[in-house]
Structure formats: C-alpha cells, structure tokens
Amino acid sequence: NAGVMQNPRHLVRRRGQEARLRCSPMKGHSHVYWYRQLPEEGLKFMVYLQKENIIDESGMPKERFSAEFPKEGPSILRIQQVVRGDSAAYFCASSPRVGGLYEQYFGPGTRLTVT
Amino acid sequence: RKEVEQDPGPFNVPEGATVAFNCTYSNSASQSFFWYRQDCRKEPKLLMSVYSSGNEDGRFTAQLNRASQYISLLIRDSKLSDSATYLCVVNARNQFYFGTGTSLTVIP
Questions:
Q1: Between chains, do A100 and B31 touch, taking CB under 8 Å as contact?
Q2: Closest residue of A to B100, CA-based?
C-alpha cells in the first residue's frame, strides 16, 4: 500500500508565475489536508477536502490560493502569481475518516522556492 | 487562545536520560490525540496515538488527562536517534490541530 504521494518534491517559480502542487492520498483514504510550513516554524493548516468538496478552508489565504480534490485524480493546491513569501514546504496528509482514532499520514512535501 | 499549546523547548538531554513533553488543548470536545515526530526538513511521522488509559510503546509512554485537557509523552533511555521535533496533535470538530512542536536534542 503506497503512502501519500506528492509531486513535485521541489518546485522553483519566478515571482508572478503559477505553482501547482499535487497530492495523491493513500489508497482508501478520502480525506485530504494541506499544510504549509515556513522555515523554522510549525505546521499551519490550510484546507481540508473530501472528494469534490472543500470542507474547511479557514487556513487558506483569501487571494491567489485555491485547492481541489476531484472525483478522479490527485488533489491540487494552486498558487497563482506567487510571491517570495510563498516559499515554504507544503505538506499533504490523508486520513480514511475523521473522528475516532483515525490518524493522518503525511506525504514527503513539496518545497516551493520563489525567486 | 491556541487550540494546542506546547513548550517549544529546546530540550537538550544526555543519552540515556528520561525526558517528558507536555501539551495542553483548549477544546473539551476533542476526540482523539496523537504524538508525531518531525525530523529536520522531513514530513511529520506518527509516533503514537494517545488513549484514555495511557499507552506504552517500547521506550515511549503517552498519557491523556481529559479533566485537565493535558497530554504527555515520556521518553526513557534517550537515544541519539530520538533527536527531532515532537508534535502534539488533537482531533476536534473533524479537524486536526497541531502544536508548534517541542525540539529535542540528545547529546552523546
């Protein structure tokens, strides 16, 4: 059973370009979470999605950021018109359910560098 | 008030020492609790879930006190490989809340 997959692992973008980060959850997991981690800081929740639904996007910046989890294919975190402050590690995690004792499992992350 | 609070440390302990980390959470309706470990520039990895009765996994013991809304992690006989950041995680309102992490360095 493959773990959570993220690609690309490293992404370099110039200011003003778009960044697309992909996340494939573990097999059988229908809940996906995105987190951002700035250098020397803790994980910050961004968005929680189930298939075709955004459940909680309270951690997403109001502009330039969007996320989706289509019926088929990976979850996508999209950052438009990137700025230097977007440079960070973006982690995706998946869970089979929420509540109870269901843990989250993390992907290896995408390290975004904005030049 | 933050959902989950941890002492950031750093904790610097000699090999073989016992070290304890504490964590408090604010939502009394929280359902489940976990400790994760994160190595530098890597993804968080699940260390152990925390059960109401307390649980042990080798050198690691986790305890939960629902009345005080407090979680702890005890590491006995510390190894160099235990050096990492330890994250307290709480599941509440169908979301996972992470503490900022406690940094541990085990010194030879």
A1: yes
A2: A42
